[in-house]
Automatic annotation (TrEMBL):
Domain annotation AB hydrolase-1: ranges: 23-256
Recorded superkingdom: Bacteria
Protein name: Alpha/beta fold hydrolase
This protein's record includes keyword Amino-acid biosynthesis: no
Pfam families found in the cross-reference section: Abhydrolase_1
InterPro entries referenced in this protein's UniProt entry, alphabetically: AB_hydrolase, AB_hydrolase_1, AB_hydrolase_fold, Epox_hydrolase-like
Coiled coil residues, start to end: none
Keywords carried by this UniProt record: Hydrolase
Gene Ontology MF annotations: hydrolase activity
Length: 274
C-alpha cells in the first residue's frame, strides 16, 4: 500500500493512489469523503497522459488517524510532505471543497516553486465564516449545527447531509447508489477528524493565501451548489486571484465531480492543456 510518513507535532501515514504517467496532477478530496470521490477524474486524466496522484487526508480513507493536526497548517504541511517525498515538480494541484483550502494554504505557506497550475473546484476559499470584515460569509450557527449533528449521531447526520451534497431527493430511486457510495466513504472516516474538520473549513481565512497565487488558476463551481454557494466562494476567489479563469457549471450541485463528471473532466483537461 503506497504511503508516506509525515513529520511534525502530529505525525501520521498518508495513503495515496497513483495512476498514469506524465506531468503530475495531485487531487485533494472534500469532506467527509476520501480519494475515491475522484474515480472519474483519475481515469480521465490518466488516459489523457497525466500522472494522477490522489491521497487521503489524515483521518480519512486509508490514511492514519492521529489525535491531532486537523487544521490547515497541518494539512498544508502534509501536502508539502507528499510533494517533496515523491519529488513532484511542475505539479498541478486540484482541490475540491475542503481540499481547495489545502491548495490555498500550501501556496500561501510554501509558494509555487514546484507548482505549475492550481484548480479550486467547488472550493471553500476565500473565507466561509461570516464576520465583521467578511459579511458575505455564512453564519456561525450553520457550522455549530453541523458540529452538534456529528457529535450527537454522526451516521444519522451523514444520512441527512448527502442528499443536499448532490441535490438529490433522498426518497427517489435515482441517485441512491451515489448516496450509498458517499456514505460508505464517510462512515470509514475518523469521528474525531470528521468533527474537527468542520471547524477547520468553517473558520479558516484563506484571503491572505489567495494573494500569493502566481500560477494559472481554474475556479470551477456549480451554480446550484447548496453546500458551498458560488457567490460565497468561487466568485470571490476568482475576483481575488489575478488572471484566474472562472467556469460556472450550470445546474451543478456541490458534488459535481460525480454528477457532472464529464463536464468537469473536460474543463480540467482543457485547463491543463492550455
Amino acid at each position: 500500500m503506497p504511503t508516506i510518513q509525515t513529520s511534525g507535532a502530529n505525525p501520521t501515514e498518508l495513503y495515496y493512489y497513483e495512476q498514469g504517467q506524465g506531468k503530475p496532477v495531485v487531487l485533494i478530496h472534500g469532506w467527509p469523503l476520501s480519494h475515491r470521490m475522484w474515480e472519474s477524474q483519475i481515469t480521465a486524466l490518466a488516459e489523457a497522459g497525466y500522472r494522477v496522484i490522489a491521497y487521503d487526508r489524515r483521518g480519512f480513507g486509508q490514511s492514519g488517524r492521529p489525535t491531532g493536526g486537523y487544521d490547515y497548517d497541518s494539512f498544508a504541511a502534509d501536502l508539502n510532505e507528499l510533494i517533496t517525498q515523491l519529488d513532484l515538480r511542475e505539479v498541478a494541484l486540484a482541490g475540491f471543497s475542503m481540499g481547495g483550502g489545502e491548495v490555498a494554504r500550501y501556496i500561501g505557506r510554501y509558494g509555487t516553486e514546484r507548482v505549475s497550475k492550481a484548480m479550486l473546484l467547488g472550493a471553500v476559499p476565500p473565507f466561509l465564516l461570516k464576520t465583521d470584515d467578511n459579511p458575505e460569509g455564512v453564519d456561525k450557527s450553520v457550522f455549530d449545527g453541523m458540529l452538534e449533528g456529528v457529535r450527537k449521531n454522526r451516521i444519522a447526520f451523514l444520512q441527512g447531509f448527502f442528499p443536499g451534497f448532490y441535490n438529490l431527493d433522498k426518497n427517489a430511486e435515482q441517485g441512491q447508489d451515489l448516496l450509498a457510495f458517499s456514505k460508505w466513504q464517510a462512515w470509514a472516516a475518523s469521528p474525531l477528524a470528521t468533527e474537527q474538520c468542520i471547524t477547520a473549513f468553517g473558520t479558516t481565512d484563506f484571503r491572505a493565501d489567495l494573494k500569493k497565487f502566481d500560477v494559472p488558476t481554474l475556479v470551477a463551481h456549480g451554480d446550484a451548489d447548496q453546500i458551498v454557494p458560488l457567490e460565497v466562494s468561487g466568485q470571490r476567489s476568482h475576483a481575488m486571484i489575478p488572471g484566474s479563469r472562472l467556469e460556472v457549471v450550470k445546474g451543478a450541485p456541490h458534488g459535481f465531480a460525480a454528477t457532472h463528471a464529464q463536464q468537469l473532466n473536460a474543463l480540467m483537461l482543457d485547463f491543463l492543456k492550455s
